[in-house]
Every structure is written in structure tokens, then in C-alpha cells.
Amino acid sequence: MRQFLDFEKSVAELETKIFELQHVEQSSDDMNISEELKQLVEKADKQLIALYAKLTPWQKVQVARHAQRPHALDYVNAFIEDFTALAGDRLFGEDHAIIGGIGRFNGQTVVVIGIERGSDLDTRLEHNFGMARPEGYRKAQRLMQLASQFNVPVITLVDTPGAWPGIDAEERGQAEAIAKSIQTCLRTTVPIVTVIIGEGGSGGAIALATADKILMLEHSIYSVISPEACSSILWRDASQAAQAAGALCLTAQDLLKFKLIDQIIEEPMGGAQRDPEAAVASVKKAIQESLDELQAIPAQILQAKRRDKFLAMGRQEVE
């Protein structure tokens, strides 16, 4: 059952009517309503195109968080063959918010690290809603070091509201773990390609996104703070989140303009949640193109270019 967002109400009403007419047509041999159905489908498609052509930043936030968007494990299961998950940070324990391991991408061995937020209540609880603890980031460090050791590229899939802010995480060194993950990304000697597939929140996202190529899905978001938290700090009122979203410049289009990401991956009309297979295929193609480009660069030059890229952020002029 498709879930609709608040601003999709007009499309939802049309698609509900289409569903009802399809049911009537299938259950009756005497009624021919194919022409009416065709007109309704065309009208729904036009409304959807018009809606998604002018999404506000806050509407983009809602799309990025849509429960039916493909998650990290959906991408891994779709295009990583022979995936072998590797667990634990060898210091404390296993963190299910970050999944990672070794597999084959288009026949090439890769290390994959993803932040998984879950698709229903049980899996969301299991993966802590995509909010990693220190052991998750230390596991990611271990996997990146393994990639350097065996000279295989790294693919990271980011979808998180941010790192887990609980007392237990702070007691185990959350800030240090995130900082060390960023450092490990910068020191890794193999290509790193990151895709922001949903929500890229704060340091919890950049810990896995300090990459040679940062790709964002068209309706994903990437920000130093969530709109709700920003609103609570600036206006002491979380209800101003829509205004905060606009001020944060968190859309893929804004971030490409500011040269903080490298590429936007087009989504199916209406968002990745309406056609997950098409979204997965687009992400797979974009990752392969990035790997083809990066693997031609010698390791030392790759490292230096990665460091220079992040040091230059905030210094260059916007075109």
C-alpha cells in the first residue's frame, strides 16, 4: 500500500479513484471504463510532475524521510553479489545501525558500508532508526582500513538523522569515533564513493561521507543539523522547521551549487519510493561511473585530491 505525504493529497485522491475504478472494471464484464481510467491516470501523472517540479526544501525533507524509499540494505541486496557482512568493532560490540562487509559490485570486489534505518517498526528498532553508536563508526573504520589493506574501493550509503545522542554513546566516545572515521576516510588509499540515499544528518553522515565522490539522490537532504533541531535552537519552537529547512540549504540542488557534493542522481518521478527498482538502477550506474573515473588515479594523488577537496570547502566562490 502506497503511503502519501501531506502535500500529495490531490494525487492521492486521484490514485484512490483510479484504484477503485480498476477494481470495478476487473469485477464486471459489462462495464468499459478504460477511457475514463486513461484520462484519470494522465491527470494524476501531470499533477505529480507539477508537484515535484517545485518542491520546497521542507517538502524535500519529507520525501527524503519517506518510509518506503529504498534503504541501504535494499541497495546492497540489489547490486552487491556474494555480500558477506562483517560485524563488530573489535573493541566493544556490534552496532546494527551500520551494516558493512565485502562483496562484488559488477564483478569487482568492494567494501560496502551503509547506514540502515529499517523499514518497519521491528527493523527500525533493530537498527536504532539509523542512528549509530561509537562502535558502529569504529566498525566502519575497521572496514575502511581493510579496504586499504587489500586495495579494494569503498562504497558508502548514507541515510541517517544523525549519530545516536544517548548517554551510552557519549560515555563510549561518540565524538572521538566520528572524528576518527573522518580521519580514516581521509587517510584511506583506495577510492571512496558515497551516495546520500535519504537523509544525511550532521556528523553522523559526514563520518562516512568524506569521500572522493559524493553523490546525492535528487530528493535527498544533507545538513549539519535537522530542521527541527535548528528551529528549536533559533526560535525555541520546533514548529518553525519548514522555515529552518529553507535557511539550511540542505537540498541536493543547493549543495551542488555550493560545490559540497559532486553529482545529483535523478530519481523516478514522485521520488525513489514510487519506483525503487529504477532508483536502484540509477544509483548503481552512477557508482560505476565514479569508480571508473577514480580507479585511474594513483593512490597518493587520490589521497591528496580528497584532502584538498575538503579543505577547499567554504573557500571557493559560488558560480
From TrEMBL:
Record field: catalytic activity: N(6)-carboxybiotinyl-L-lysyl-[protein] + acetyl-CoA = N(6)-biotinyl-L-lysyl-[protein] + malonyl-CoA
Matching InterPro entries: Acetyl_CoA_COase_a_su, ClpP/crotonase-like_dom_sf, COA_CT_C
GO biological processes: fatty acid biosynthetic process; malonyl-CoA biosynthetic process
UniProt entry keywords in alphabetical sequence: ATP-binding, Cytoplasm, Fatty acid biosynthesis, Fatty acid metabolism, Lipid biosynthesis, Lipid metabolism, Nucleotide-binding, Transferase
The name this protein goes by in its record: Acetyl-coenzyme A carboxylase carboxyl transferase subunit alpha
Protein location: Cytoplasm
Family recorded in the similarity comment: Belongs to the AccA family.
Ranges annotated as spanning the membrane: none
SUPFAM superfamilies, sorted: ClpP/crotonase
HAMAP family recorded: AcetylCoA_CT_alpha
Subunit structure: Acetyl-CoA carboxylase is a heterohexamer composed of biotin carboxyl carrier protein (AccB), biotin carboxylase (AccC) and two subunits each of ACCase subunit alpha (AccA) and ACCase subunit beta (AccD).
GO CC terms of this entry: acetyl-CoA carboxylase complex
Pathway membership, UniProt: Lipid metabolism; malonyl-CoA biosynthesis; malonyl-CoA from acetyl-CoA: step 1/1
NCBIfam families according to UniProt: accA, AccA_sub, PRK05724.1
Predominant location: cytoplasm
Function: Component of the acetyl coenzyme A carboxylase (ACC) complex. First, biotin carboxylase catalyzes the carboxylation of biotin on its carrier protein (BCCP) and then the CO(2) group is transferred by the carboxyltransferase to acetyl-CoA to form malonyl-CoA.
Gene source species: Commensalibacter communis
GO molecular function, one term: ATP binding
Signal peptide annotation: none
